[in-house]
Amino acid sequence: MAPVIKLNSGYDMPQVGFGLWKVDNAVCADVVYKAIKAGYRLFDGACDYGNEVECGKGVARAIQEGLVKREELFIVSKLWNTFHDGDRVEPIVRKQLADWGLDYFDLYLIHFPVALEYVDPSVRYPPGWHYDGKSEIRPSKATIQETWTAMESLVDKGLSKSIGISNFQGQLIYDMLRYARIRPATLQIEHHPYLVQEELIKLAKREGIAVTAYSSFGPASFLEFNMKHATAMTPLIEDEKIKAIAAKYNRPPSEILLRWATQRGLAIIPKTTREEIMKSNLRSVEFDLSQEDIDAISAFDRGIRFNQPSNYFETDQLWIFG
């Protein structure tokens, strides 16, 4: 039986899921279908990924062929920055559900704590970071409280079973908990040995918020964007210390990095288009690392964040990311 994490909303979330960021539209439906066939039940999508229609086609094919039932899947999506105004949340969620071909999401997240001016989906979808699609940044006046109140109504209306947050830091979480009628069920963060975020994880655990790690392999996901630090850091799966630990367990380095996260109680959402790697990532929960090896991997921590707004645009509001 695949491991699950019990959410504060009462639902079970698979601990090992499949991430959909950068899955090319041309192959996305087939990748999702094959991932379901390989055993994945959680799929982590987002408006900003631009592939939700194709993801839905992969899900529909798997259901039609009897590989899985809808209620056996855990579908995650995210609210993009340009839809933070309270009256924009429900309409865009309904569009995203239609794109997926679903009646509800299992989990819906605020993608970033960044509110940008509304861009109509008929003008450009997904909208991206820039109002004009090129360089202009237009912030919205929507507060996190306004957005979260609208998120809570999604649960009331059955559009999402659980709601959560992504890329939030401690101060914002504490502020949210002062007014939240429905507490966030999960916090999704960049997390890998170069960015352990131990205090943030402790905070979430203390508040009953499950943590999902993305970019588990560190700079690998960001090399193509030439993001700050990414090209300067040794890819973790190529690091000699990681490779030595992998050899000790007779496992590939990728499984070592994933197990380091799950053994510490986090959920993971790695992605791949290769079926053998899909299966390998699922197998990463089938062994245990020693505490000594967990500590050795945690010692890689450099506090280096690859996914941050300064990599997308320049603004004086970067404090919100901590």
Automatic annotation (TrEMBL):
CDD domains: AKR_AKR2D1 (cd19115). Keywords: Carbohydrate metabolism, NAD, NADP, Oxidoreductase, Xylose metabolism. One of its GO terms (biological process) is D-xylose catabolic process. Substrate binds at H111. Pathway: Carbohydrate metabolism; D-xylose degradation. The record marks K78 as: Lowers pKa of active site Tyr. Residues 17-300 form the NADP-dependent oxidoreductase domain. Pfam families: Aldo_ket_red (PF00248). The active site is at Y49. GO terms for molecular function: D-xylose reductase (NADPH) activity. InterPro entries: AKR, AKR2D, Aldo/ket_reductase_CS, NAD(P)_OxRdtase_dom_sf, NADP_OxRdtase_dom. PROSITE patterns: ALDOKETO_REDUCTASE_1 (PS00798), ALDOKETO_REDUCTASE_2 (PS00062). Belongs to the aldo/keto reductase family. This is Aldo/keto reductase. It comes from Canariomyces notabilis.
